[in-house]
Amino acid sequence: MKITIFAAGSRGDIQPCAILGRGLQQAGYHVRLAAPENFAGFIQDYGVDFYPLRGDVQQIMASDTGRRFMEKSGANPLQSIRTIRTLIAPVVMSMAKDAHAACRDVQGLICLGVFSAFGQSIAEALSIPILNVEPTPLLPTQAFPAPSWPIQKDLGRVHNVLSGRAMLQVVWLWYRPFVNEFRRHLGLAQYSAARFYRTLRSTPMLSAYSPTIIPHPPDWPGSVHIMGYLFSDSQAGWQPSPELTAFLEAGAPPVYIGFGSMSGSSPERLASLLLEALAKSGQRGILLTGWGGLRAEAAPGTVFVLDAAPHGWLFPRMAAVVHHGGAGTTAEGLRAGVPSVILPFIFDQPFWGARIKALGVGPDPIPQKNLTADRLANAIRRAVTDTGIRQRASSCGTAIRAEKGIENAVTIIQQYFGKP
After folding, report:
1. Which domains are present in the chain?
2. pTM value?
């Protein structure tokens, strides 16, 4: 059986799909991963057939508009509608058409949930079954506020449900003109917000996060399967440089700081603040530059600047991890069993920061607009020295490492698509 997985976004969106694809191949399926062309090398490292989608999401988010959005507009769902449309307009139709082409000879489609309106249109046009996959919850629930909702405090069941419905409406408005243009291209009737919501709720969902972190809410349908995180140990044999090894062995475990694709409009200023916070906290640090442009040209000897390293190798060797709160980085921090300090920018990042706080495995998240060197230094000190936080983080890591997300995913997909 041939399956196409359709995904776009940052590495945190693409990586679980690549891991899922490899797991399905090992179970006997023929898998093709349709993703933005700039991820070609990354996906091929997983041994999954790659179908390139025109457009570079990394380049879009690194633009001036993208950086301003990360720093300001991303916190306001209403303001995000116009900005997201502006950002994706040059590439979204090409991506959707390429994804359709990637599905013409397959018997099933797995679609990243946030793009489900496009995936559903492809499945409808080609008469093939579809499953959605999500790294962060999409459906409204009474159990917690919606990811990307500005208020991440639990103000009660009514507020939580309304926030979820509001955010689904925002997601729909991001894509509405493009979805309906795409459906016209495919010869399909136009979509409405109501149909988008009904279809999202009725399509089986593979939730790629841990039930230890988010137990299945009672008001979600049984077709939502919280299967556990999708981790990869493909880089288990990765070897650090002699310089990194020497730094790690030269003192106490350092504090990791990295933001992946996120660095805002002033990465130099952010890097300077981070170095100041580390100095004030009295901790050694590892600064990962990532592809967000974070640079620290004048780092002291107590800070090691690193271009890249597998989180699965690096995080267990840290005293704490400081990051933006992306779903994938948060998962790796939890698996490592070390405290997390979340400095969220946009989208689901405040949600994961709130989950870290609620679980007691890290201090209060610090939104970028409130970030100062003193606040971050205090948060780092607490993460490193608070015995309760460290014990809870260790216990959480033990539970997550015992879960079998990939095996669960394969079993669920076999139930819906049949065995290969």
Report:
1. 2-229+403-417 (3.40.50.2000), 242-401 (3.40.50.2000)
2. 0.91
